[in-house]
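Hey,
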Amino acid sequence: MRIGLYPGTFDPITLGHIDIIRRATVLVDRLVIGVAINRDKGPMFSLEERVAMIEAECGKLSKETGVEIVAHPFENLLIDCAKEVGAQTIVRGLRAVTDFEYEYQMVGMNRALDSSIETVFLMADLQHQAIASKLVKEIARLGGDVSKFVTPDVNKALKDRLG
């Protein structure tokens, strides 16, 4: 069984994330969405809320693609999480050249830690390349319309959170 790990904070999950998840389903039989706990980032949504959003959005995608997609919270090294879930591949999404520079360093470090786990980069679709959770939250906080960047359920969660 081919198992992939797509890690991130997913605070909140965006259409860009969902695009990468959809693309990754053609590469693996099981896709684990690694939900980083990362207390330093001070997420808007709790770990439980982020996992629930991922499960709701990916449940639909799993049925469409026939690929098992599961959310898995983690707070350890990414490479250790990959080993823990049996992933042979780490999936990373790229939006711009600046993403590549950071990701390039991460791949080098992860390969030094365990060269048996491969990293695959997927480009987001052009219409989703500018989407970043951080920007979505900022636009929502300032009363802007984020419906072009997130699903209706995530949009509602943002509105409910921000009152």
